[in-house]
Specification:
about 60% helix, mainly alpha, homodimer, two-stranded antiparallel sheet, DNA-binding
DNA sequence: ACAATCAGTCAGAAAAACATGACTACCGAA
DNA sequence: TTCGGTAGTCATGTTTTTCTGACTGATTGT
């Protein structure tokens, strides 16, 4: 992601950049699961049969960079990390519903 | 496109298949141009600087298979082919507007 | 102390997407 | 009949994406 001529494309066709943020093998499914609540890395991996650490890690990072997810360290009993939908992420749910209503 | 485990994914996450239909290097731009009227292969190629025959041909074929575009042979003066937005394609415009309103 | 779980990273291989240039076949004009 | 335009296909090569398996390092349970 993020090659040279990114802004040019985005200006020509704004939808393109947004589509990129959601396309990628595991992103749509991660997004769906994020709708149901905060995600934890290993649990997520188990919920995505056939997925591998690397790809999920990259998907999470890119979705965070795109401002769809936010990462929080939860300083509690088993000290873990949560990936949850950001406000911007919530705003994207409309797109998903539109896509599914076809 | 269209690997083995396609229907399984589509059932789990309907948005995924739809996103695939619109993602790919030239598809969003082709879609946009199709909104403005029927497309002809060589003209389209000229409107997409940097694109190549092969990729555009594949994009058009896949978008037709996905039911977004329809191909028509126009038996007229210079006998040519038109690729135009299908009804289903028209229905997708909403998704694009949603994506752009972000 | 030892093992397991959590959340990753890294190098390298395999697979998918994309680009290049050559080629086909058909139509119409010069 | 040779040239240019239409709409592609094909084999090949490059680039990008995804997968695999090994490894790290902190934390927690026994």
């Amino acid at each position: 992601m993020t090659t040279e001529s990114e802004k040019l494309i985005a200006e020509q066709c704004p939808a393109e950049g947004l589509l990129r943020q959601l396309s990628g093998k595991w992103k749509p499914q991660i997004f769906r699961l994020a709708l149901e609540g905060p995600l934890r890395f290993n649990a997520l991996l188990r919920q995505l049969p056939g997925a591998n650490k690397q790809s999920v890690a990259v998907a999470l990072k890119e979705m965070e960079e795109a401002g769809l997810l936010t990462k929080t360290v939860v300083r509690e009993k088993p000290l873990h990390i949560e990936h949850s939908l950001s406000e911007r992420g919530q705003a994207m749910t409309g797109v998903f519903r539109t896509l599914e209503g076809l």
